[in-house]
Every structure is written in C-alpha cells, then in structure tokens.
Design brief:
The complex is a heterodimer of chains A (about 100) and B (about 190).
Chain A: H1 6-9, H2 11-21, E1 29-30, H3 31-38, H4 42-54, E2 58-65, E3 68-75, H5 77-94
Antiparallel strand pairs in A: 1-3, 2-3
Chain B: H1 5-51, H2 56-81, H3 87-117, H4 122-144, H5 146-165, H6 170-190
Classes of the chains: A alpha+beta (about 100), B mainly alpha (about 190).
C-alpha cells in the first residue's frame, strides 16, 4: 500500500482538493466561492493554496472582470491523481490494509 | 508520516462533506435560472390577467410557451458547460434529461388533478395549480438543501394568504408575491 500524501493530508488542503475534485476536469472555482465553501480565512486559504500550487496539484489563474481582480483555481491532472491515490490509501487503512 | 484509522475516518468524512457541498451548490446554480424564468411567467401572466380583463385566454398560453422555451434554452446552455467524456459529466447530462421528463410528469399530474377536482373559478384554478409547485420545492428542499425548502415555504404561504384574504386582487398578488418570490429565490440560489 502506498503511503499518505503529506501535502494533501493536511485538513484544509484535503478539503480544498476534495472540493475541486468534485468539479468537472479543468473547471475553475473562484477564490471567494472556495473560501466560503470551506469557511476559511483569506490568509489561511492563501497559505494552503500556495502549498498545493508549489506541489503542482492546483493551477491558479488571475485575471480581471472589468476593473475587479479575480482569482480562480482548478485541480491539475497531477493533483487529481494525487488526491485519488490519497483517498485510496485512507480507504485501505480503514479496511485494515494498514 | 503516520495516519491513524481515526484520522483516516475523519479525513474521508471531510472529503464526503466537501463533495456533497459542491453537488448542492451546483444544484442551486442549475436551478436558479429556471426559478427566475418561471417567476417571470407567473409575474407576467398574472399581472396581465389582473390589469387587462379577458386577457387570460392568450396571456397564459403565451407565458407558458415562453417559460418552456426559455427553460429548454437554459438547460441546453447549462449542459454545454459540462465537458463530455467524464463519468460525472455524463451523469449531469442525464440529470438534465430526467429534469425535463419530471416536468412532463408534473404537467400530466396537473391536467389529471384539474379534470378530477374541476375547480369552478379562475381563482381556484390558479391557486390549485400554483400551490403544487411550492410543495414540490419543499419536498425537494428536504433532499437538496434548505434554500429550496425556504423558497417553497414562502411561496406556499403567499398563495394561501392571497387565496383567503385577497380574493379580489388574487391575480395581482400571485404575480407580485408568487412570481416575485420565485425571481428572488432564483437570485438567492445564484448567490449561494
């Protein structure tokens, strides 16, 4: 059995990955919407999104809608695979595989 | 890094909750334009019936035709946003078709119940048909989320209040509060 993914396992990052994984592949979610779904603060979100982006698990897109800046994130293919592997690890552990 | 079975169970629970929340939000966003469209149908047809006596014969068919066509276009536009080829997307497209078939079943039910009950006044017909929808929202809200339930409760209350306490201005009441509550509800679902 493969070990846990240390980047994804952290609670907030796990919930970020789970939320983005529930969207169709490549669909972007606005930073504010993600923050409200998770009930997290701006600072907390920025830290964890930074960690996930550094690992190549999420893609961050910044643009403007009119004059208003907009930040959107999506799960990359590597992120989706890492998330699926980590969920499989957790299930194996619960089913007595660990 | 060691993960205990308790931590694994909690992590899986967090994952399920996050996924459920996304499904709920997508349901709200898919439903929102349809609430706004049918709110406009209600508002337009009832207002026309109230302000232009005798106009109900053409106002309702025209408004219903607008509602069905606009809802269909909104459904097609939504289904085009879902990329093909993934299991989840195929499931979402099936959801769209099932919604269409459910609407047809509800329409058949309305026709049958109207033939059986044979309401004698236009106020009774309007109230009897209109009251079916908020109760569908309430029942759907029990499964899909409290916002849908709240829209159903407010709309059902508006219909009952208008029917018993404002019989002379019932059509206007239905347009403003029945249609208005659906439009406001649709906007509210979009902001979720």
């Amino acid at each position: 059995m493969e070990g846990p993914d240390e980047i994804i396992h952290q609670s907030t990052r796990l919930r970020i990955a789970a939320t983005l994984n529930a969207l169709p592949s490549g669909e972007l979610l606005e930073f504010g919407k993600l923050k409200s779904i998770l009930g997290a603060t701006d600072g907390n979100m920025a830290t964890h999104l930074g960690a996930l982006e550094k690992a190549g698990y999420i893609a961050v897109e910044k643009d403007f809608v009119g004059k208003k800046p907009r930040t959107r994130v999506s799960l990359t293919r590597a992120g989706r695979k890492a998330f699926e592997r980590h969920v499989a690890y957790l299930r194996d552990l619960l089913n007595g595989g660990g | 890094m060691n993960v205990t079975r308790e931590e694994a169970a909690k992590a899986l629970d967090d994952i399920n909750r996050a996924s459920d929340r996304v499904v709920q939000l997508k349901g709200y966003h898919h439903g929102a334009p349809h609430f706004i469209i049918w709110g406009l149908v209600w508002l337009g047809a009832n207002s026309a019936t109230y302000f232009i006596p005798g106009s109900d014969k053409y106002a309702w068919p025209a408004a219903l035709a607008f509602g069905f066509v606009a809802s269909m276009i909104a459904g097609i536009l939504q289904s085009r946003k879902w990329p093909r080829g993934r299991h989840a997307s195929a499931a979402e497209r099936r959801f769209g078709y099932r919604m269409g078939m459910t609407a047809a079943v509800v329409m058949a039910f309305i026709v049958c119940i109207t033939l059986i009950a044979q309401p004698s006044t236009s106020r009774e017909i309007n109230a009897m048909i209109s009251i079916i929808f908020p109760f569908l929202y309430i029942a759907g809200g029990i499964w899909a989320g409290w916002r849908l339930l709240a829209i159903g409760l407010v709309t059902a209350a508006a219909i009952m209040i208008g029917f018993y306490w404002l019989p002379d201005h019932f059509d206007l009441w239905m347009g403003l509060f029945g249609g208005g509550s659906l439009i406001a509800g649709g906007i509210w679902l979009r902001t979720a």
